[in-house]
Amino acid sequence: MVHLTGEEKGAVAGLWGKVNVEEIGGEALGRLLVVYPWTQRFFDSFGDLSSASAVFGNPKVKSHGKKVLDSFSNGLQHLDNLKGTFAKLSELHCDKLHVDPENFRLLGNVLVVVLARNFGKDFTPQVQAAYQKVVAGVATALAHKYH
What we know:
By secondary structure, the chain is mainly α. The protein has helices at residues 6-16, 21-35, 52-56, 59-76, 82-85, 87-96, 102-119, 125-142.
């Protein structure tokens, strides 16, 4: 559960309404894979991830980034029940994919960087604070099924 004030909820929803999930998702996942290259081991089936240009030009990275942000968008609609919303994804990433739950926190922080880069002056410190709460809540929810 993420506790946001009415003002914070409005700021998150207002900015998210401007987000192109395909573009922002591809950039966020791409940056994760470049900045934290050890995360690439979970994406062996994506092909060439040998350089930043290969990562950002990879259609599988863009597609999966969109999928990630589609799930994030769903989470924004259920901030009062993030654990329930992300329960199946948590189980999948824990039991089948064996993703280190720290990667969820890293991706959330990268998403905040990408939003700041893309929205500049609209991404005020207050908007960032609200998004930091949201990405922390999503990361906690995704890590919930880990033993």
